[in-house]
Amino acid sequence: MPRIVECVPNFSEGRRPEVIDAICSKITAVPGVRLLSREMDADHNRAVITFIGSPDACVRAAIDACEEASRRIDLNTHKGEHPRMGATDVIPFVPVAGVTMDDCVALARRVGEQIGTRLNIPVYLYSYAATRPERQNLPDIRKGEFEGLRDLIGSDPARTPDFGPNAIHPTAGATAVGARDFLVAYNIYLDTDQVDVAKKIAAGIRFSSGGFRFVQAAGFEIAERQCVQVSMNLTNPAKTPLHRVLETVRREAGRFGANITSSEIVGLVPLAVVADAFEYYVQVERWKPDQILETHLLDAETTAGFLESCAARTPTPGGGSVSAYAGALGAAMVAMVARLNDKKSEPGPLHEQIDAAEALMGRLNALVKEDAAAFDAVMAAWKLPDDDPQKPAAKQAAQLRATQTPLETMQRALDVMRLAKDAVQKSKASCLSDGGVAAFMAHAALEGARLNVMINLPEIGDESQREELRRQAASLRDEAAALRREIDALLAGNYG
User: Fold this and answer.
1) Predicted confidence (pLDDT) per residue in 420-438, tens digit
2) Tens digits of residue pLDDT in 387-402
């Protein structure tokens, strides 16, 4: 099973798309990370970004995103409904697959330490990563917001950060980093402009003032819509389900002569939350979540579905995509071998390979789609009318992309081969064959990707650019061939 972490950083910017674009670019530039969603709210002046990936890749993406936000967001000029204390206000890590909450706590501490050291931003650990009981709840850490913390940090021992300087960053403020369970960010809109109504309802449902155990809530005025909002985080929707909170808000609003007009979910939501609400409102007898069709399609989408797509009478996915997928399989095998060499009580000799292999697996998996998209772009460019003045430039841009994408597959596959050689050298005997398979899959990926580089080269008009790409492909192939001979020799020494 791959090790997957979800990271959901919140940024104090909801009105300038170009800022969030820049932050997202830093995230997607990290191999092994997949951006799932980005949502901006102008009234709250806040953005929520969700991405997943291997633990090591998510650490790097979170730090890079925080650094970009610190360059572009100034808390001194920031105004919005949502409480905030930092340009990057909060960075939570959530275990998804193959990782534990303790693993995410360790990630939070790594990220917190690096943000404090590299970016000179004070960091507070919260939720499961909290170092003090009073810092488990994020609202308690954020109390007073940027302005209040600026006055207290350095003078009040209770506000001393876990990492970084004991002083506010002059523009980026402070950041909370933690590990938590899945939560649902849920907002309910009421048909009144009386913000006191929303605040009273929020006070009645949040745990800190006697409400539901797993609800954090606040009331806001939404001036643009001339209404108010009850904004919530449901920190354990399995134990305090969304529909129960909704119906309570509905009853409480009725006491003030108000009604619910709509609600919204910010970011992503687990399917189980939707299924619970469906069961409650539709009142289906003998309902079981596995009656949802899509839950039975996941395996098909990742295995048989891809094979059927490759076998179909369509040009994509083609050889470039298959090559990238072979490289991803090789990386997955390296990660497996590294884990099988770990000991129960301590990491094994290949433990440090795990995150590197998973980052390569994620990037090569992304190249499966990118290669198909590159070829589709070539086809689209060639189909432009001959009298279109943009056609020559479009063709050249598409051909270059269709060459550079498999060239990257070659480079990533070579990286997998290097890891595989290390795995063969250091692995226990029972895993040597798996290390060999990892190397052979990666070598096949590299050779297959090279064919896709070579078939696109003749269409690139710039001769110097064409020859440079040819040189890079030849160099990668030569290095891979030498590495393959070394790996063959290592395996021959064990298997003859």
Assistant:
1) 999 999 999 999 999 999 9
2) 999 999 999 999 999 9
pTM (two decimals): 0.68
Nearest 5 degrees, angle CA 245-CA 248-CA 254?
A: 140
Give dist(CA 187, CA 352) in Å, integer: 42
CA 24 to chain centre: 10
Q: Which of 44, 78, 82, 443 is catalytic?
A: 82
Q: Is 43 labeled as catalytic in the residue annotation? A: no
CATH class of 302-495: mainly alpha
- Structure confidence at residue 56 (pLDDT): 87
Does the active-site annotation cover 82?
yes
Topology at the third CATH level for domain 184-295: Alpha-Beta Plaits (3.30.70)
Bond prior to 317 in cis (omega within 30° of 0): yes
Residue 252 burial (CB count, 10 A): 18
- Extract the tokens encoding 269: 């939501």
What is the CATH topology of the domain spanning 4-179? Formiminotransferase-cyclodeaminase; Chain B, domain 1 (3.30.990)
Task: Catalytic residue, from 56, 89, 355, 371: name it.
Answer: 371
Domain boundaries, the chain: 4-179, 184-295, 302-495
